[in-house]
Specification:
The chain is of the alpha+beta class and 536 residues long. It is 32% helix and 30% strand. The strands form four sheets. The chain has a five-stranded antiparallel beta sheet, sandwiched between helices. It has a five-stranded antiparallel beta sheet with strand order 7-6-10-9-8, with helices on both faces.
């Protein structure tokens, strides 16, 4: 049958006369005299068919084809009614026809050469609400006089798709509907009758009668939904309580959109209902749970604020510079991104009575009020112990005893240094902490790793000391791991990255510390402390 129709179409192409268009003056082309015969031919086909006539610009150039006619068998790939496509320009109805499928180019070539084109399993794509909807079809394109006949047979996947849709609606408790505004006919699928608890023999409920089946208190959202959909002709949604005939109340959500013709007239309404009763009662239970947890959350919030206030009081982001001849000292503190992650990072830079400058940074394990209070204890203890004039190794040994016995067996890391402005030397020791970084000229390197266990791990331990001779323009950096720590890299890789940034030495020490914080690639959202000195 198809071959006979195509043979007849080719015969018509040779017998019908071609009438040229007069595109002068930018007017629409006159109706093609042979279009009527082709429309009659299309109406006699058993496959969906479109009759296309050329659409010319003011200079008489072909820019598009107008859909002059669609037959009764026409099926739009996007499910739109015939009236939406009939009379529209092809590239307006199917803007993707000029894309990867080359459909428009095929039609244009057939119109120019008169040679018919046929293809099997060609993809047809329609753009509806910016969403591409595709179908697979067998195509036949032929010229008849000045018109083009486009025949497509969409691949029959109806049964499989209908089965998939039914299962999806059943699992999602979703029912679909469509209302023809012109005829007043309302169509429901089986799931809709199940949602409403309604006998299919009694027929569907039109949208305008929705309020009569809903709880009286939901009249306002239903009225707003219908007004948006019918008057403003825009997609709309609403949640309401359905009063079913069996006395059961269900919580439903309705989503619908208007279907408009080419003139903007309302043709149909289509949409879906979904039973959200389970979600509603889950939200009610969660609300009750939130009420029970309110006091606990408030208590935790107060603890977080207290820890943050304590940390900010002891660890300001910057501080006034120390007055040490020939030495610049700068510090930076960056708190955690989230308040609940308040940690135990700390720094100190102070001139001791013996005129040495003590520099240190440390990190107490954990977060919250316990970590913040332990940080205060260790920082103040180190300050008091430093007045004795002991070296950094001895100070860390004493601080280990404080951490183990006096603060509830907390653990922490620290690095402590004593800078002598006269000799320009730094004696330092570390307790499980990353070593300082020395920037000299265009190079940057970490100081050799000394032996030293983290604070609080054992009752007593000793810490190795080392001394480094500093020169003019040297910069020394101490920092906590929040500056470099990453979840996806080792400490060695992160330290290498830090050294590459540290080699760039800005004019001032403050600028260098700010730069290190800015370009830090840490992703743990932890606290960060930096202490830096630069010799004049």
């Amino acid at each position: 049958m198809v071959k006979q129709v195509e043979a007849l179409a080719e015969l018509c192409a040779h017998t019908l006369q071609t009438y040229p268009y007069d595109g002068a003056g930018g007017r629409e082309p006159r109706p093609v005299p042979d279009a009527a015969e082709l429309m009659d031919l299309a109406d006699g086909l058993h496959d969906p068919a479109l009759v296309l006539v050329p659409h010319l610009d003011g200079a008489g150039r072909l820019v598009d084809f107008r859909v002059q006619h669609v037959n009764d068998r026409f099926l739009d790939p996007a499910g739109r009614p015939r009236a939406v496509v009939n009379g529209a320009l092809l590239l307006e109805a199917y803007p993707l026809a000029a894309g990867g499928s080359d459909l428009f180019q095929r039609i244009e070539r057939v119109h120019a050469t008169g040679e018919p084109f046929r293809a099997r399993r060609m993809s047809l794509t329609a753009l509806v609400d910016e969403v591409p909807l595709s179908a697979v079809a067998d195509l036949s394109i032929s010229r008849h006089g000045g018109c083009v006949l486009l025949i497509w047979r969409i691949e029959d996947e109806t049964a499989r798709l209908a089965s998939l849709l039914q299962h999806a609606q059943r699992l999602g408790r979703i029912g679909g509907f469509e209302e023809n505004v012109l005829t007043g006919e309302t169509t429901w699928n089986a799931q809709m009758f199940a949602l409403y608890g309604r006998d299919p023999a009694s027929g569907p409920v039109p949208l305008e009668e929705l309020g009569a089946h809903a709880h009286a208190d939901d009249a306002v959202p239903i009225g707003r939904f219908l007004r948006t959909l019918l008057h403003h002709r825009r997609p709309s949604s609403a949640a309401f309580r359905l009063q079913r005939p069996d006395g059961v109340t269900r919580h439903l959500r309705i989503v619908a959109e208007p279907v408009l013709d080419t003139d903007g007239g309302l043709v149909a309404l289509r949409g879906a209902y979904q039973d959200i009763s389970a979600q509603h009662w889950t939200e009610v239970a969660l609300a009750a749970t939130r009420d029970r947890l309110a006091r606990t959350e408030q208590h935790a919030s107060e603890r977080g604020r207290l820890a943050l206030q304590l940390q900010h009081a002891i660890m300001p982001p910057t501080r006034a510079p120390l007055e040490v001849p020939g030495l610049q000292v700068a510090v930076r503190y960056r708190p955690a991104e989230e308040e609940q992650l308040v940690g135990g990072d700390w720094y100190d830079a102070v001139v001791l009575p013996n005129r040495l400058v003590m520099l240190c940074v440390g990190d107490v394990a954990g977060h919250g009020i316990e970590a913040a209070t332990s940080m205060v204890v260790l920082r103040n203890a180190l300050r008091g112990l430093a007045v004795t004039g002991a070296g950094p190794g001895q100070l860390l040994s004493w601080l280990n005893i404080v951490a183990h016995h006096l603060t509830g067996a907390v653990t922490a890391t620290a690095v402590c240094g004593m800078y002598d402005p006269v000799r320009r030397t730094l004696r330092w020791a570390r307790a499980g902490h990353l070593p300082p970084v020395l920037v000299r000229g265009s190079g940057a390197a970490a100081l050799p790793l000394l032996r030293g266990m983290l604070l609080g791990a054992v009752p007593e331990t000793e810490y190795e000391e080392a001394e480094v001779q500093l020169a003019a323009e040297d910069t020394l950096l101490m920092y906590t791991d929040g500056l470099i720590e990453r979840r996806d890299r080792s400490v060695e890789e992160s330290l290498t990255q830090l050294l590459s940034h540290a080699r760039s030495v800005p004019k001032s020490l403050d600028q260098q510390l700010d730069r290190l914080l800015t370009y830090s690639r840490s992703d743990t959202d932890d606290d960060t402390c930096i202490v830096g000195i630069r010799l004049g």
